[in-house]
Structure formats: C-alpha cells, structure tokens
Write a structure and sequence with these properties.
By secondary structure, the protein is mainly beta. Helix content is about 0%, strand content about 50%. It has one domain. It contains no helices and six strands. It starts with a strand and ends in a 6-residue tail after the last strand.
Amino acid sequence: MVRVWAPEDSFVQYDITQSTNPDFDSSFSSECSGRINGGDQKNCYIYNDLIPRGPS
C-alpha cells in the first residue's frame, strides 16, 4: 500500500507507478492516480500476480 496525502491549503496531482517485471502482471487500485485536495488522504494498492510459466 502507498499512502498519498496533500498539505493543508493545497492540492497535488499524482500518478503512482512501479518498475515492470516480466514475471508479474500488475494492476493498480483507482486511488493510484488523480488529484488530492489539502488535508485529504488516499490509499493506493498495487497488486502483483505471478504469471504462470510452463516447463522450460
């Protein structure tokens, strides 16, 4: 989880990302990007699912 917040009397435009890994399929919750107003807090959840591989 990544917690995003903005100082009082301000706003922040943000976009949470992560490095890619070919072994994982990543998805992000809806609060991982957008605008946040001063004093507010949002929680971004990043999900990394292992991609099954066949025998080599």
